């Protein structure tokens, strides 16, 4: 192990030289080392206090986390000062890949061109759009009354407002609106809590794991859905051979329309958020969510009464859930789903698990620019109005290295979810009945 052997217990020894092989062995929950820019840090204890959640660091324990660290942090100088207290030593034999170095050069170019800098006017206009839509819904009911067609109209207006609020909270959550973390956190709490009734910390816990290891089993919570659906080519076969699972997965492409989009936001997310906040004693997020419901019922109870307002709210969430589910899943679920591999670098991992939907004013607005899912995953803190600038450079890098850059129509991207469910369900059924 060379000069790094004295650092086995995580004690900081300046100027220690450590082999990459030794770093890779510190990959347990109670023994976590990560590598960033050639330097090794013991994050075993820090993981419990990590703002992005302990699991993200655990997912990269024993690995080179440089590209993930660079992608997630705007305040690198501040974070680096804190990391210095966790320093263990330097690694001199870091595995070098041509594509990894070329992507890092691409990121350097992106920074130099200013494409990572926030665009205040874009986000101001987007925020005002949401306020206008909510105000319009109240005004329509006040002026035109509560006929069935006006109720449906205002419900759809509020659905649009909530969907767009979902995209804007996503921007604040990724720190792509403000250069400083403080304002990003403040507005994320405001948009996801007071404007949507969800939890900022819950979103961080789920979403950053998804970005850190997308479509990787046991590491991406967005694909941990085996209690209802089996996805990909490998997991269904594993479940089938072991006779696991209690759903008729061979029909999952059909019951997806009953248990997927209709129930995700109205039922599942409500219970998960409440459970998360109470379990972690996150009283701030719970209070902001309660404030959202107080505001909603204050605005609409005069029109519908108590239970009528509850029905109106659930109807809005029902429509929004379809919008949210198709947009967020079309770019990931149909792609490769697998166990983690130490051979995957950041660039290849994101391209393998993501696809784009063709740009255009409607697709951009409808998806909150998540139709540029590849660019978003490569540069998660980039303001979304700049994705189109970097997309041609990403395509060129993919072409050079023979990596598929998937870019679909909106219809095909959504249809591929159903095709994937049908294929995966059949794989499970065949393996189960061998």
Automatic annotation (TrEMBL):
- Please tell me whether the keyword Heme is annotated for this protein: yes
The cross-references to SMART domains, in alphabetical order and at most eight, read: Cyt-b5
A GO molecular-function annotation: oxidoreductase activity, acting on paired donors, with oxidation of a pair of donors resulting in the reduction of molecular oxygen to two molecules of water
One Pfam match, given by its short name, reads FA_desaturase
Subcellular location field: Membrane
Keywords of this entry: Heme, Iron, Lipid metabolism, Membrane, Metal-binding, Oxidoreductase, Transmembrane, Transmembrane helix
Q: Where are the transmembrane segments?
A: 121-142, 255-276, 288-313
GO cellular component terms, semicolon-separated = membrane
Which domain of life, per UniProt? Eukaryota
PANTHER family in alphabetical order: DELTA(5) FATTY ACID DESATURASE FAT-4, FATTY ACID DESATURASE 2
Could you tell me what this protein is called? Cytochrome b5 heme-binding domain-containing protein
């Amino acid at each position: 192990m060379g000069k790094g052997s004295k650092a086995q217990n995580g004690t900081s020894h300046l100027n220690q030289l450590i082999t990459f092989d030794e770093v890779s062995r510190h990959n347990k929950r109670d023994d976590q080392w990560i590598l960033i820019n050639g330097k090794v840090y013991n994050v075993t204890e820090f993981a419990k206090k990590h703002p992005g959640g302990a699991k993200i660091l655990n997912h990269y324990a024993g690995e080179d986390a440089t590209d993930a660290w660079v992608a997630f942090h705007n305040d690198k100088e501040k974070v680096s000062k804190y990391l210095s207290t966790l320093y263990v030593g330097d690694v001199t034999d870091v595995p070098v890949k041509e594509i990894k170095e070329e992507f890092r050069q691409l990121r350097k170019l992106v920074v130099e061109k200013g494409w990572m800098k926030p665009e205040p006017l874009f986000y101001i206009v987007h925020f005002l759009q949401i306020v206008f839509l909510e105000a319009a819904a109240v005004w329509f009911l006040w002026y035109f009354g509560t006929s069935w067609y006006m109720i449906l109209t205002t419900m759809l207006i509020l659905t649009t407002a909530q969907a767009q609020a979902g995209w804007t909270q996503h921007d604040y959550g990724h720190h792509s609106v403000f250069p400083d973390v403080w304002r990003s956190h403040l507005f994320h709490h405001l948009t996801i809590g007071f404007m949507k009734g969800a939890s900022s910390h819950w979103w961080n816990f789920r979403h950053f794991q998804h970005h850190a290891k997308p479509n990787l089993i046991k590491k991406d919570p967005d694909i941990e859905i085996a209690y209802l659906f089996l996805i990909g080519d490998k997991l269904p076969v594993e479940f089938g051979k072991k006779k696991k699972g209690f759903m008729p997965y061979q029909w999952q492409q059909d019951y997806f329309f009953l248990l997927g989009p209709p129930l995700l936001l109205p039922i599942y997310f409500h219970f998960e958020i409440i459970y998360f906040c109470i379990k972690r004693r996150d009283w701030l997020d719970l209070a902001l969510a309660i404030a959202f419901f107080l505001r909603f019922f204050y605005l609409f109870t005069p029109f519908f009464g108590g239970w009528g307002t509850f029905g109106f709210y659930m109807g809005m969430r029902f429509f929004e859930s379809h919008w949210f589910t198709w947009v967020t899943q079309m770019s990931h679920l149909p792609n490769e789903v697998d166990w983690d591999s130490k051979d995957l670098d950041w660039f290849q991992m994101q391209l393998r698990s993501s696809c784009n939907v063709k740009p255009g004013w409607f697709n951009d607005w409808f998806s909150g620019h998540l139709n540029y899912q590849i660019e978003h995953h490569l540069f998660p803190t980039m303001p979304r109005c700049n994705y189109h600038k970097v997309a041609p450079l990403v395509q060129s890098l993919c072409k050079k290295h023979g990596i598929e850059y998937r870019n679909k129509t909106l219809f095909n991207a959504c249809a591929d979810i159903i095709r994937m469910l049908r294929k995966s369900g059949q794989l499970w059924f065949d393996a189960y009945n061998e």
